[in-house]
Specification:
binds zinc ion; seven-stranded mixed β-sheet; alpha/beta
Length: 305
């Protein structure tokens, strides 16, 4: 099953140095999530050939313009392109009202239903779940209500090891074994899951943390994820700016990654004051070597291990 993250935007505040505002596509099998939707996201989706109407869910972290000003335009375009499939929209209090006002004063209606769920800002909450994954939101510390998101596989199938099984199994029985269930065949033969299966592979996970100041309280939520995206708006030379803006430095993001024992860290949300981003990598890898910089158009696959 595929699990990938495609970067559409890495800039904080405004577009600069060829960098767009925050937006990412996370694809897990046939579920496509758009996380944040900065201005211009629809043009960038087009550039990277993402079919708008295949997006099932949009997750908005907070209501600073660089994370959601592209949303209304995208919702409108989806309607004009003939979408009828409902869309799940997750975001902070106020987002539903903002969209309603835009529709009201434009005398517009969308051809499809937007199912809005307000994110919780006090504690972690599961916001979506299906047969193979679970999405949670969790609080970040920023100037306005803001949440991170965790996308995690669930119900990983057991690996079947039936080479020596003296009876053939029906599809239904095979699927039960994949779920780790034991059962008895009509001839009385006991098919015990412990004997004929191997444990499932580790569930893969991705965590998105933008925007936030350094906050160790998020560590339990992102513990041991395969890939952590953590904002790093500044380098150490401008660390004093993190207090008033409630953002993080590369070194702080790396410290969180290390303490959370994640597999890989991806830095993003770079301030427009930096054209060159090398220093972010230098400062982060000193603490957490397995760091990469988010870059527009990059697709990071999370492989099974
Ligand atoms: Zn931002
Ligand atoms: Zn912000």
């Amino acid at each position: 099953m595929s699990f990938s993250v495609t970067i559409l935007g890495t800039s904080s505040a405004i577009q600069a140095h060829g960098r767009n505002q925050s937006a990412q596509i996370v694809k897990v099998f046939n579920e496509i999530f758009l996380i944040d939707c900065g201005e211009g996201t629809q043009a960038i989706l087009k550039k990277y050939k993402v079919n708008f109407n295949k997006i099932n869910h949009i997750l908005i972290s907070h209501l600073h313009g660089d994370h959601y000003l592209g949303l209304f335009g995208l919702l409108s375009t989806m309607s004009l392109l003939g979408r009828t499939k409902p869309l799940n929209l997750f975001g902070p209090k106020g987002l539903k009202e903002i969209i309603s006002i835009q529709l009201k004063y434009g005398d517009m209606a969308l051809n499809y239903e937007v199912i809005f769920s307000e994110t919780q800002v006090k504690e972690k909450a599961i916001i979506f779940k299906n047969g193979f994954l679970e999405v949670s939101s969790f609080p970040l510390i920023h100037r306005v209500d803001c949440t991170g998101f965790l996308i995690k596989e669930t119900n990983k199938p057991f690996k079947i090891n039936t080479e020596d099984l003296p009876h053939s199994l029906s599809n239904v029985q095979y699927n039960r074994l994949k779920k780790g269930e034991s059962f008895v065949l009509s001839n009385g033969f006991k098919v015990e899951a412990e004997k004929w299966t191997l444990p499932p592979k580790k569930a893969r996970s991705y965590a998105y943390c933008s925007d936030t100041m350094y906050n160790e309280k998020i560590i339990p939520y992102i513990k041991e994820v395969d890939l952590l995206y953590h904002e790093s708006t500044f380098i150490e030379a401008h660390a004093d700016r993190t207090i008033s803006t409630m953002h993080s430095t590369a070194r702080e993001a790396a410290t969180i990654a290390k303490k959370a024992d994640v597999k890989k860290l991806m830095l993003g949300h770079f301030s427009t004051r930096y054209k060159d981003l090398d220093q972010f990598l230098v400062e982060s890898t000193e603490i957490f070597p397995s760091t990469i910089l988010a870059k527009e158009g990059n697709k990071i696959s999370i492989e099974e291990s």
